[in-house]
TrEMBL record:
This is Glutathione-regulated potassium-efflux system protein KefC. Belongs to the monovalent cation:proton antiporter 2 (CPA2) transporter (TC 2.A.37) family. Residues 13-342 form the Cation/H+ exchanger transmembrane domain. One of its GO terms (biological process) is proton transmembrane transport. Gene3D superfamilies: 1.20.1530.20, NAD(P)-binding Rossmann-like Domain. It comes from Meiothermus luteus. Keywords: Membrane, Transmembrane, Transmembrane helix, Transport. InterPro entries: Cation/H_exchanger_TM, Na+/solute_symporter_sf, NAD(P)-bd_dom_sf, RCK_N.
Length: 525
């Protein structure tokens, strides 16, 4: 039953989340603050908050699984960078922990625990910017999954999770794809689809828990069993609101863990000061493995935080009498502060790269990179940036009229779908200033920006105008308040898809614009 304090949790989360948003920070900073406020008032997180937080994390990892490609986990950049960073940072923190008097075993738990990055935060922030399926998004998620697997092993060693021999059955979850896919296709598009997705996430988590494995891994693998299914995008969108609401409880719960004693506050501050070192190590390893400076920078910022797994492993060490209880609270404060700092840092990551680009490029290795972007239009007259539904329809119409078109997108899944239809598409991230600096615009008549993210459209338009491009720059706009920003950035033509769809439907109803062949409706998503 809901207690009176549960209402105050919701009110405080909304109030401080709204205030953080007004100050230019992501709302989750306010949620963390609300947790600290309630801890200061002597209130503890109740069962309702804990249950909601757990469901939120499970839904998040389930939706990550829906977009997961196992090929991205075995990339040399993921295994090499993820493994080397984990070893190097864990050794460094472990040595520092031994320097303050901890035993070697306790230092191991602290070092490895703090080497992990927050999966919840990184995935949420990448998803908010529609970058989960970009090249750098896949690299970051791959490293996070690798870390999570190590975390599960560490918890098993600590006695928190004792996998049974049957735990290997979880690897067989992808074999359920025909069955779960069959039911998914017959679950409709509304509440049944929502319930089915929730049931899959909780079912995978429950199965893993009974096998002695982290329920988070079970939810992730259950989602991965459906990865690539045509209806996963709709399922992910359907779960989005529920997932975001429950994740508020997770951030409240982190803040509610409270502050350590005054004598341990300097230690918490010291741990926070290690974050730039953590980010720098990621950056240099990623560059060393042959990625471009921008990919390395954006990925390293996404991974610059301490993980919720650090809390779990520290609690395990306290229960095993390896760590004093006060140190666990110190780690919880360091984790909370790292999340609060990482959120605004990630929001500004593209502006930061643009500011420090000349310096960062000095560390980039010469030669060909796995994430190289095009420098030539290959004779195209029109450039479509963002090959989703709108961009795909625009591409098809232009090519149908005999124009040469090049499509750009940072989502490898969309690129593969369009390439299977023999369309001229290339990898390109609209927010990357290097793309617009190096792309030869000779012969280009116009650019269509059909991206969902406003920031990406603004950066693309600004990059084109800096190059002196005088052709048409058209962009989609989903909110009228976006229009002045797009016009100021150099957009000359604005399309409002929702409003225009209604107008076109009315035209067809009046017989003014007859419906074309059904083939038009097959435009790739």
């Amino acid at each position: 039953m809901m207690g009176p304090m549960d209402w105050f949790w919701v009110g405080a989360a909304f109030g401080l989340g709204w205030l953080a948003n007004r100050l230019g920070w992501p709302p989750l900073v306010g949620y963390l603050g609300a947790g600290f406020v309630f801890w200061g008032l002597g209130q503890e997180a109740g069962p309702l908050l804990e249950n909601l937080a757990e469901i939120g994390v499970l839904l998040l990892l389930f939706t990550v699984g829906l977009k997961l490609r196992f090929a991205s986990l075995v990339r040399r950049e993921v295994l090499g960078v993820g493994g080397l960073h984990l070893i190097a940072f864990a050794l460094l923190v472990g040595l520092l922990a031994m320097g303050i008097g901890l035993s070697s075993q306790a230092a191991l738990f602290v070092g490895i625990g703090l080497a992990f990055s927050s999966t919840v935060l990184a995935v949420k922030l990448l998803d908010d910017r529609s970058e989960l399926n970009t090249f750098h998004g896949r690299i970051a998620v791959g490293i996070l999954v690798l870390q999570d697997l190590v975390a599960i092993g560490l918890m098993a060693y600590a006695g928190v999770k004792n996998p049974t021999p049957w735990a290997l059955l979880l690897l067989a979850l992808p074999l359920l794809r025909p069955v779960v896919g069959f039911v998914l296709e017959r679950s409709g598009h509304e509440e049944l689809l929502l319930l089915y997705g929730l049931g899959l996430a909780l079912g995978g988590a429950s199965l893993a828990q009974h096998l002695g494995v982290s329920p988070e891994l079970g939810a992730l693998l259950m989602g991965a069993a459906l990865a690539g299914h045509p209806q996963t995008a709709e399922l992910s969108r359907t779960l989005w609101g529920l997932r975001e609401t429950f994740l508020v409880a997770f951030f409240l719960q982190i803040g509610a863990m409270g502050l350590p004693s005054n004598q341990h506050l300097p230690l918490a501050a010291g741990l926070v000061l290690l974050l730039p070192l953590k980010a720098g190590l990621f950056f240099f390893l990623l560059v060393g493995f042959g990625l471009r400076a921008r990919t390395a920078f954006v990925s390293s910022i996404a991974l610059t935080s301490y993980s919720e797994f650090a809390l779990i492993t520290s609690v395990a060490a306290v229960e095993g009498e390896l760590l004093p209880a006060s140190l666990s609270q110190t780690i919880s404060l360091a984790v909370a502060l790292s999340l609060a700092l990482a959120a605004p840092l990630n929001r500004a990551v593209h502006r930061l790269y643009q500011r420090y680009e000349p310096l960062l490029l000095r560390f980039e290795r010469k030669g060909r990179h796995a994430d190289d972007e095009p420098t030539s239009l290959e004779g195209a007259e029109w450039l479509v940036v963002g090959m989703g539904r709108t961009g795909g329809a625009a591409y098809k119409m232009l090519t149908g009229k005999g124009h040469k078109v090049l499509g750009l997108d940072a989502d490898e899944g969309k690129l593969e779908a369009h390439r299977s239809k023999k369309r001229n598409v290339r990898y390109g991230d609209a927010e990357d200033p290097e793309l617009w600096e190096r792309l030869d615009l000779t012969g280009l008549k116009g650019v269509l920006l059909t991206l969902p993210d406003l920031e990406a459209k603004l950066r693309a338009a600004e990059g084109l105008r800096r190059r002196g491009f005088e052709g048409i720059v058209a962009a989609t706009s989903y909110h009228r308040e976006e229009d002045p920003q797009l016009q100021a950035a150099g957009v000359t033509l604005i399309s409002r898809p929702f409003a225009e769809a209604g107008e076109r439907l009315a035209e067809r109803a009046l017989g003014l614009n007859p419906l074309e062949e059904a083939e038009e409706e097959k435009t790739s998503t």
